[in-house]
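ENTRY TYPE: protein
CONTENTS: sequence, structure tokens:
***
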Amino acid sequence: MAPSADASRDSDAPDPVEAAAPDDTIREPEDVAPDTADGETGEARRVDAAGRTESFPHSDGPRSPVAALVYNPIKVDADELRAAVEAQAKEHGWGDPLFYETTVDDLGDDVTRQALAEGVDVVLVAGGDGTVRAVSEAMAGSDVPLTIVPSGTGNLLARNLRLPLTDADAMVATAFDGDRLRIDVGFAEISRADGERDEHAFVVMGGMGLDAAMIANTSGDLKKKVGWVAYVDGAARSLVGAKPFSVMYEVSGHKTHRTHAQSVLFANCGSLPAGLELIPEASVTDGEFDVVVVQPKGPFGWMLVWRRVAWDNSVLRKFRAGRRALRLRTKDNAVRYTRGTKLAIAVSDAQHVQLDGDEFGEATGVLARVEPGALVLTIPHGHSIVPPAPAD
């Protein structure tokens, strides 16, 4: 009697019925396509929701570091910039970088928090001053380095740090191989007339009054066409009806002041476009911010303001002889300077507020504070943020 099929089959052999499931087809090894194709290494890879593949982290050691690029697609050549980041990541043995675009509704802070949640090792930002501000707000206190790739209209933080403004590749390279610099970050809690409050960061400067109204009155289309020069148009629109407003302010360590002013500025940086120096001695690493109260009296007062910014600060202070001349000059109160770690501003009539060139509506009060060394930046090796010594 012939043995049964069950008896003749080895006990370790698979059951044909189970092997054929779920489509009743038994496959031989040669029927299954290999998991690699010509030219591929066979390295295990995973696929994201969009169908793109990326390497699995190595199981026998720490994962490769990863960079994230947050960029404003209107301000940069996205393809060129992404390619530069990918090339640097590959050259330095990093993993595939992550890319995030800003939108009208997300200036960069939300996507930056997403990148940080992914555990990235460095974030690069490319866009205007508003994009840099939003990304810095999300990164403050994280200890993850931020690389600024200058683009857009002002690049005020990059200018104040004396970073390369026209060499994007040089700045991209610092993300993977550069020095580190800690800078201060300011935060401003804005109080509205209806009692609402919201807080935002700034890395260059904020202001209440005429400077903010000037920004609010600047045409967005004109700014896109001619850059920061568009603010001249905004200034002209604002100066026509500019009136001093009653303000009460107090800087930490100083007494409370009540005055009539055109603007109250709180600054982490002191340089403006076109080489103008609003606050020559401002520092992003001193743990304080500088407060500037602009309070001209009439047309002659505005001439004193312009002389202080455009001539005294921007020209004379660069020379020893000029600084000696300034010490002999009679001081005026058209522009008043002070310094501290906190600033409280209160006004009776709501005034415009701006942070790093972004309009933040009208407010009845601002409480500003500084967080020393809260943001880590990458800079070129050996780069100094200190201006050269004044000439003789």
Summary: The chain has twelve helices and 16 strands. The mean pLDDT is 81.
